[in-house]
Write a structure and sequence with these properties.
The complex is a heterodimer of chains A (about 800) and B (about 190). In chain A, about 50% of the residues are buried. The radius of gyration of chain A is 37 Å and the shape is elongated. Chain A is about 20% helix and about 30% strand. In chain A, helix 2 runs parallel beside helix 3 and helix 12 packs across helix 17. Chain A starts with a strand and ends in a 14-residue tail after the last strand. Chain A is α+β, with helices and mostly antiparallel strands and about 800 residues long. Chain B is an alpha+beta fold. Chain B has five helices and 13 strands. Chain B has a six-stranded mixed β-sheet, sandwiched between helices. In chain B, strands 6-7-5-8 form a four-stranded antiparallel β-sheet, with no helix packed on it. In chain B, strands 1-3-2 form a three-stranded mixed β-sheet. Classes of the chains: A alpha+beta (about 800), B alpha+beta (about 190). Chains A and B meet through strand 8 and strand 33 of A and strand 1 and helix 4 of B.
Chain lengths: ~800, ~190
Amino acid sequence: MEEILFEWNGNTVTAKPGDTVASALYRSGVRTFTWSYQYGRPRGLLCLTGSCPNCMVNIDGVPNVRSCITPARNGLSVLAQNQNVYRGFDSPAVKRFPAAPPLSESPHHYQHAYLQFDVVVVGGGLRGLEAALASAERGVQVALLEKQPALGGDSVLVEEVQSHPMVTTFLNCSCFGLYEGNLLGAVQIDYDRPNAETLLHLRAGSVVVATGAYETQFLFANNDLPGVMLSTAVLRLLHQHAIVPGKRAVLIGDTARCSQLQADLEAAGVEVAASLPIGSVVSAVGDDHVRGVATETVTYDADLVVMCGPLVPDLGFLAGTLPQSVSLVGAAAGEGFTNQAYIPPPSSQSKNAIACLCMDVSGHDVAETIAGGMGHIELIKRLTKLGKSACQGRMCQTAAVSLCSQISGQTIAQVGTTVARPPAPPVTLGVLAGMRHHPVRRTPMHYQHDQLGAVWMDMGDWKRPRYYDPAGAGNQEQCVEQEYRAVRERAGIIDVSTLGKIEVKGSDAGRLLDLVFTHKFSTLPIGRVRYSVLCDEMGTIVDDGTISRMDEQRYFLTTTTGNVDFVQQWLEWWAAAAGMKVNIINLTAGLASMNLAGPLARGVLAQLTGCDLSSPAFPYMDWRQATVAGVPATMMRIGFVGETGWEIVVAADYGSHLWEQVLQAGASVNLLPFGVETQRVLRLEKKHIIVGVDTDALSNPYEAGMAWVAKFDKPDFIGRAALARMKQSPLERMLVGFELNGAIAPSDGSPVLVEGKPVGWATSVRFSWEKEKVIGMAWVTPAEAKHGAPITLRWDDVNYSAQVVEEVFYDPAGQRLKM
Amino acid sequence: MERQSGLHRCHLEAHAELKTFSGWQLPAWYTNPSSELEQVRSSAGISDASYLSKLDLRGPAAEFPPPARLWKLTPTHALVTSPLPIPFVESSSVTDVTSIYSAILLAGPKSREVLRKLTTLNVSDGAMPEGAARQTRLAHVNATILRSEGWVILNTRDVAEYVWQTLLHVGAHPFGMVAQQHWMGSHESA
């Protein structure tokens, strides 16, 4: 027979085909599988059905793997857990095994799959097989989920199910939750690869729950000793793995099941010393393993204690009221048993009677909590942590409820149960994360920036060059200064394809823009561009951009990089609300745009187009369409950075070509590409705001020093009433420019102090090569909003003195834009 | 000027043999057309179909002669696609969106399995027969999926490269234009 070899704490263990990791370890003589989390109590096999925490081990670096449902495979590295837990103030920490390896990025194949079925049957036992076949015979698509490596029940039915074309079977697949709309979450494990788990998102027309029942433990002193097992574990060891679990056994609990089990054990050669009702048990006896069971009068020697414990329908993955399309069958519906509670023996209030195996909560703890006045089962859970860990209450709920009922005199129904909350069983975080697919948005010129040495920054999902470092010297200030000087003295170009671009067209296009923007657009002449801000009903600035009138019924809008979806929805909302005949198309991804600016920009662009670029023919805030570098382009003469410049827009498919052509045409004047950081310095010198950087969720145009954007020469627009009121009211704060004394630029966001008290904060702070000083913009109270007013910035525990400056820092008359 | 699709860089990195196909620079093949075709026929393949002309129609859908195909997205919103330029008049209800959307043809017997790893959309034959079009999410980005000789996945061009790499990651194999033309041909006659 083929042998399977794996490692247990560094020693080689031999397994047989069909073994789980747990059965192979038990066969090889392992009795203690783990130590309890809190007190380091030794723990051995208990349920063998994946319901308890006692067999959890670390397999190939993954902690908390339930070894009893994990097939044994060659080459596994299995480690016991919790061998190093702190064992109280008096006893030294015990080191029995090498420490578990640190959590690390181990190889993994986590993925998701989205599937739809008419019927999903959870549980591949007898009743699950029957349900799956019955549905399949009706000609509908059926999924059958089974957490074990094989279907159970009846071998003829198994054959029939597996060969049925309408049934898809998922083995090693634990269902962990039923969510709204019959969405089932399940994890399927592929044991052929390391950490290969698939999160199945199953949409089901109807759900059949055939998960059966699990057996749960009794509460008495030392009930958690290795060798004290549930009958499910003993039956599986005997019949599934052909392992004789002990020599001499004591059985506890349900009489009928005990006598059946006694026959099975005796047939396997196990002596049964006694069969006891739970009420007579005082304690299990033993240190590292059970040696016997004590009643009031007798102690029975035994190396195996079997609990025929209460049976509980396995419904942990269900929560709340079930819809009609979810049905329970078989033991999951409570068929075939009634003993869901019991009367715990007196010793169940011992410190050694462990109710919650996961968190080491004893009967004593539960009794103390009730005595302290917190007798509600939900309070007991919150206070003691009972039921809050890996087995999610499976092993402790019945014991705790029974004890609670006994102490308080309430009925079992009055005590109730705690609220079930999926996921149950636990799910690895890795499989929830799935494959690490994170969207990246790239402009058509992305790889050209890369070649030019772009240092990248993230703007949402977009990648934008912060600046370029062609030499890779790592000196940001030097790189930015060079780019800055290129734009101010010669020419520079920046990729602005990430800006939102929206086309608004239709007979009501002008009316819609009049309604949503502060400026008037229905009268904007064709061929002109206008800057405007978008305010909400409160008069708060929510976006800004340029709007070009392309023809009678068509406008072209730009928005800030992060806001295009919002602006599109905002426009669509108001168009629908006002019943306007207009279509709104988001063109962002289809267009490449770049801003060519600087005193020598005209000469560069003239090499690429026949369009007359002189100011009389193509004045500031006009647009023209022409062929540029052989491709159709729209040019808008605008100036965010404060120099003569054109924003050139072409189909994205030509973006890369045009960028290359501009760089070539600019080579003779040493044109440089510039990044977002350089642009921020350039525009700060012009005091051009960036919405969301210099403004916040409450900023209005008056505070921002942009009173001129509010145009009351049209009947109504969004925010008009609020703006009209603000115009009459005193301002609470103002956005002002300032110059700082000293060469160090405090961080954006530094608080602004006046006489030691905070009055606002700085929104943008940069070194200005124009002023040869640190400049910035800041929110201050109106008292400081006058030229020369002294303010203090505080950053990194240092004060920086500064003065408010009213004038724009660079070209206050705005002549350079129009040259 | 030749047009470059949003997947241009993916083709370069895969050492594709680039050729011009009706004004677009596209990969003729990556390794060789016959093994690429074989892979599509036995597994799942992806191919750049961004060259498809695409029109966005608002309001009542107009008719377009073949090979153009009309895809209804909502009662008042439709797409038209065609392997050839579509004669049309730009108006307030018609927009050429060819450059906005990249298009990836996903085809082969395992193509549905690939889709099911990335989208919650029901892609069974019953829910999405030949000729159906759906707007959905795929790998955390917006996508329009057309059922046509496989699946044509439309994304905004800015995420094209990301979607292509994601499809490769979940097991699709790239195939070039030569194999794509064979696939289309064999599919039509079949």
